[in-house]
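Fold this sequence, please.
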Amino acid sequence: MSASPPSAAAIAAASGPPATRLAVPAAHVGLAVLAGAAWGLANTTGWWLAHGGNAPARMAAHFVAEATLPLLLLAVLLAVADRATRAHPHRAGPYAAAAVGAAVGGELLFRMLGPLLGLGACHCTMDQWPVVSRVANMLPDSLIICGFVTIGYRYRRRAGERVARVRAAELERARLTREAQASRLQAMQACIEPQFLFDTLADALRLHGTEPVTATRLLDHLIVYLRAALPHLKQTTSTVARECELAGAYLDILRTRGGGRPAFDVAVDAAVRDARLPPMLLLPLLGYAAAATGHDGAPAEAVEMRAAADGPRLAITLTVAGPARAPAGDAGDAVASVQQRLRALYGTAAKLATGVTATGALRITMELPDEGADGDRR
């Protein structure tokens, strides 16, 4: 039998929730009737050719009914087996029980209902057999046919589940690809963030009349930043060293605009300097860290960054000298944005977390697969 979902009408007509109601697909019932008719007519033809008979139509009705009842019962028992194996799809016991139960139960059901329906006699030489002999003649056939139908049904069902899993995986990959493409667009936009540029140029213009040296230094830092950021527009990957260079240029601008705050200390292990790192992952986190404030509301005093290998993973830690408070608003959304991008690029293989140390310092920890400059994971 082929698996098909219950019809919408059947679900709508159910008195309880679909999850608690046993539903036998109409297609299964139809296939059971067709298969029973074919099986019964085959038996009729065989007995007629071998032994003859005086009422072929009534003989056919007898054999068709005797063959159809086990298959109809099998359709119901397969639905029961599906529900029993919903949490454990590899279990085969419920399906084996369904095949045996349908063969034995169908024969017993026919022996009870046949006389009531006027089908107790087959109008052939088998009517002279004892009941036990007639059951023994039919039951092996029922077991074989119900067994083959159950095996075919289970194989088709498992194959359908595998196809569904493959399709779900393909959809998930497509979703992650779309998210990765979107994150790349966000990264390119972040390279030359218009608001950041406007604020920097506005500060340079404001300082030009009162502090020309500071204004010139601010423009110099902006040039260094743009030289480091512009290549990212054409790159799909970067390295820890290049991202740290860009981070330093970014923080130079922030320090010049913020009166020397925050101080920035970076320590990168030589083993990970050339490790691959998606571009523009650090800047949003640095902006988040730089926007943190002390408990008195003053800007953050210092930000420390550490990059090191942690087994097969690359660990990057940003620590805001504390006690410090996490920023809110747009700055606070930076962590969620980077988390989304990491999920799109690495799935569950990367993580980003924020927390507070024992001294009250704000700490941001990012872990992702450690890839060498050639892209091979170490």
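The chain has two domains: 8-175, 192-369. The first strand starts at residue 238 and ends at 239.
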